[in-house]
Amino acid sequence: MPARLSSMELSPTSNPDAETSTRASRRQSGRTRNAPERLVTSSAPKRKRDDTEDGDDDEEEQDVDNAEEDEEEQEEAEDDEPDAEEVRDKKRKAKRAGAAKATAPKRAKTTKSTATKNITTKLASRPKARAKTVKKGAKLDAAEDIGGLYAEAFGEGKNLDDVTAQWLTRFDEHQSNALTEIVNLILHATGSATEVEVFDVEDPDNIPNKLEEIQEALQAAKVVDYPIVAKNKTGGVFKRTLISFFNSLIRSIAAKSYLFTEPELMENIFMWVSSMTSASSRPFRHTGTVVALAIMSGLAEVGKGLVEGRANTLRQVEGEQKKQKKNQARIKDLQATAQKFADLEVQLKGIIAESFDSVFVHRYRDVDPKIRLDCVTHLGEWIKIYPDYFFDGSHLRYLGWVLSDMAAPTRHEVTKQLQSIYKDEARIPGLRMFTERFRPRMVEMAARDAETGVRVDALGLLEVLRSAGLLEPDDIDTISKLIYDTDPRIRKAVVPFFVASVTDICDAKIDELGGQEALEEALPGDDGDDYESPRLLWLKLKSLAEHMHSLDPEEDVLTTIERGAGGEKDFLIAAGTDSRVTLATQAIMPTMTDMEKWECIAGFLLFDHSQSAETTDDVVTQFNQQCQLTDKEEVILLDVLNTSVKNALIDMSGSTSENTTTAKKAAKKLNKAQQGEIQEEREAAAQKLAQLIPRLLKKFGPSVDAASAVLRLEHVLNLDVFQDLRQDSTTFSALLDDINKQFLTHENRQVLFEASDALRHAKSFEELGEIAEGKLQALWEDTTHALVGLCKGEDVDVRGSIDSSVLKKIESTILRIANLARISDCSDILATPRTSGSSKQQRRKQQSDQGVIPLSLLIDLIARGRLSNTSSSQSQSQRNRDLDLTEDAVVENAMQSVLFYFMWSVSSLHSKHSSTSTTNSNGVITRAEVEQLTALTKYLQDFTTNLDSILTSRHGIDSLRLTAVGTFLDVHNLFITLRNIIPSNPDNPNAEEAEDIEEPSSVSFTRLLSQLAVPIPRSRQKELSRVFAATERDFSKKGNHPLEAVVGGQDDLDEYYSDEPEDEEDDDDDDELDTSAPANGAEVDEDEVERRALARQARDTRKQHAALRAEERLCRLAGRIVIALRAGVLDAEQQMDDAMELDGNEKKQGPMYKRVTRNRNRLGHNYKEIMAVLDADSLTERPLSRNAKTKAVKARKGKKPAATGAKGKTSAASRRKGKKSKDVVSESEEEEEEEEVEEEQEEQEPEEEEVVEQNGTADEEMQDANGEDEVASVLGD
């Protein structure tokens, strides 16, 4: 804060001689006074009376008469009952009238020099800013009620220049009243209803105390939305009007030279404002800061006028000096005027510096981000308005410091202001030091800021710096890598950097080859149809691929994570999703239009560069050598080709979801001729692409990544063209043959996924579907027979019994079966016996032999996931890790294949027997359907038995165990949907009483469906809860998420096996890093420091990846559990009990629900969002099975449930004994009775135990007996 400003002596003085004597004594004292000479408004030295004085007397008499009239009006209004506001208004008018009555002599005239008068005239007549007018509707409701200057400034349709001019007139008449109006306007702008009086303004020493009183009154009113931040439509207009008013006020004061001749005016105004800027009340502090910044903006405008006036005067001096007849007198006057301008500018800079130090230096780092935002905005404007003062390092540094502000809007504003500053090329030399200091922070904001909008603004700022040559090559590379960013806005913003870098690389190659003219003469033109001949575009494509490859942060890593066998390694597969290169190409293509020429890209890829291996002086040969691609660059260009083809073909046809509406609108504007041309272009492009794909597969087929990219081209091929042409399908059939070849020869998951997806796309076209279906059947024949042949004579259900080479072939074969099952119905194919012949002739010879059912082999192979006691006790280092990974991969692929089989089977049952199905309209159940359902039941029983063996033999978060749990839940979630097609009235509902009579097909069908569509029993939920607990604890440890403590001690459901091995990802690498500081005097090796830093960074990255993998495992498992809870697969017994409750009490949630939601708020946002699905709809509203609904209805009618206890009551198991299938393994009646007794005893326990159970040990319900009345299930124990 500056030194204490002087006050103005504004009290009326009736004795001018007393004032003269006071001044004389002041001069005689010899003391140094801080206060400058004070303004005197109510007294003046004696002067001669003249016409002017007479006129003044007349004006004073007129004022007295007006005051008397006001008093009379006041007396007449006393008869009424005015409100408080009117009383205050009248008091203010009376005070003004009383002040006007005082016969104060006028101010003495001040004699100004000629130069000062000229300067004042020039300042007043120079072009001023456009006068601000308050917009219609911007007036506040209380403005007219408040009155005074506030109403004039914020009234509707007011011109602010006129308002300030009128105020200056009142200031000339009485300074204290005018200054009081200014202070009250600022106070009302804070939202305060309190005003100051004239004596408050005349006592500047009491300003802090007075403001403190007003603040307390404002805080007592609990004002939150003060006018300048009001959320209504007038908030923004009010703030702009307030700023415009003070800008206009400063301009008017400067135009009358009061800014320089009477500095006490600005000192007193700024004393009130600066005191408000340091107030504890936010409305006071913010409003005061806005006013102070507006005043400084007006001062900057004045400074700009002084600079322009001095420059114009100096130009006039130069013009006069160039004349032959020089007017020396005029030159001297002009030089004196220029010097006066310079002196006034020095004085103005002092005022600005004092204001800047007292307000801005403190408020730019205010705790309120809105205040910091206003400071940054005005500082940027000051630099552009008055660069002679503000454009230097001492002021620019504040913008650099605010780049690290915590508030995103402030960082956004500072980047915006810096962009406008850097765009002026004349300022670039003065910004070099600033750029060197803060460039790293700008790059950091563009690369890693938390807000996308700020990153985009920072990239725009860096683009301006790049154009000015202020960025280093390393900075450009760092920014160009953002072309692979996940946010499309960032990719779009970084395109100018990337394209400029590619252009620079291409130009360097052209210069190395002799220049563009020499290449254009040696190479053929680009207009020909021979796209495989060398052309200049190839060099640009080479530069593009080379640059994209150099920017790839992990060149050996693709885009989408796919779990490998055993979870020991992570693969990345781009199948079904766009790769990083594809997304980057989509952003670049609108700028690099050459990338739309997909025929040229394909010709460049098909060109054989090996012919140019010899070194010669031929320009064409050197050009071909320069264009030779590496393997990685070929894959990149294949992705570029995919994007280019997609834009050319799909966008042309208008079949993409994004462009469908746009394409249809554009098509309506075309006439028939234009539509015909577009159709011809589509057909020609499709034919070219269909011919290019086999050639590309022939060249790039052996490469995994390249083959996957080529196979994706088939996905965008519009096969309608082949249907419309009615031509012979040789081309299409040859294309499918090449795809089948890739499917049978590759063992990579990515290639198999793309190939199967290409076959699915070909199968989707009706007229070409027969050809595609025939190719699929051929693949099924080859893969199933190969599987039977590989497994012949092997113990497929014993782990470690098959040679590693054979096991590897089995793994790839089952992986092919899983991909085929994903795209085509395998319910009949996998259940049909197959022979082991590898050729058609061998199969015909073995037709008499009994074949092997591939589905049975797959289910038996799942048993290889069971660990024996000896193998589970061995340490990981003692086992063949590669062989174990292969074994686990075989089991995982087999699980996936069988799960697809069950999906197709359930889908077939729904399509045939649902109420809306038209496939089986007569409703007759045949014996063949019953046999098929019986076989399905047997397969499902064997499948779940093998899954159960994996769950019980493996411990902790073993990857195969997690896969088995997920598959177990998926199967139950799948078959529970069959309850919707179970007939409610079978043909013979009493068939269970006649044991010797064969039951009808419909009854058998219903019984089998009931055995399939059952929930998971509580005994099995205990094992699921253990797996979930292990997964939850793993993520809690790696992600640093503490879990909720279990009430009542250790929960048995969360029990960890004592012999579980620790996860390898938990190993802490801190021991490997010696982070101790070197001894005193020891020499520090920079390479060692860098090595340690890199090792520490690698360790942190591994920990981060481990936490992400742990979270993914937890969320995947939790998602399946949520689906099971919503479907009634889990907590089904609790749900049934809730349905039978007759009172209106709140339903109890099941133990699994309580278990998974126990730490819902402690395991991160992803887990919390998954748990939110449970609360989307009430779990008590989930659809019940028909049996549960029947029990609920019986309970409401007063009937007892089927299973009610053991005391003289019939057991449900005994009543259904004859109904159970021989294939179903059920518990004995004795066990059921014992469990029912335990349940009965638990129901009789005191309520206190129920409260403890609900608080933390509710999971123990899963250990209760499985004695509920259940349908015999093949999915049970």
In short:
The chain is mainly alpha-helical and 1277 residues long. It is built from 53 helices and 2 strands. 36% of the residues are buried.
Q: How would you characterize this protein structure?
A:
This protein has about 1300 residues and is mainly α. It is built from 53 helices and two strands. The chain has a two-stranded antiparallel ribbon. α29 (about 630-655) runs antiparallel to α31 (about 670-700), α34 (about 730-745) packs antiparallel against α35 and α42 (about 925-955) packs parallel to α44. The longest helix has about 40 residues, at about 1085-1125. The protein is globular and about 120 Å long. It starts with 15 loop residues before the first helix and ends in a 22-residue tail after the last helix. The N terminus and C terminus are likely disordered.
What distinguishing features does this structure have?
single chain; 1277 residues; two-stranded antiparallel sheet; 2 strands; 62% helix; globular; disordered N terminus
Flag low-confidence runs.
1-82, 95-140, 556-575, 654-660, 845-849, 872-878, 988-997, 1049-1073, 1139-1147, 1178-1188, 1191-1277
Rg is: 44 Å
Looking at the structure, what is the overall shape? globular
Beta content: under 5%
Q: Please report the distance between the alpha carbons of the first and last residues.
A: 82 Å
User: What topology, given as strand order, has the largest sheet?
Assistant: 1-2
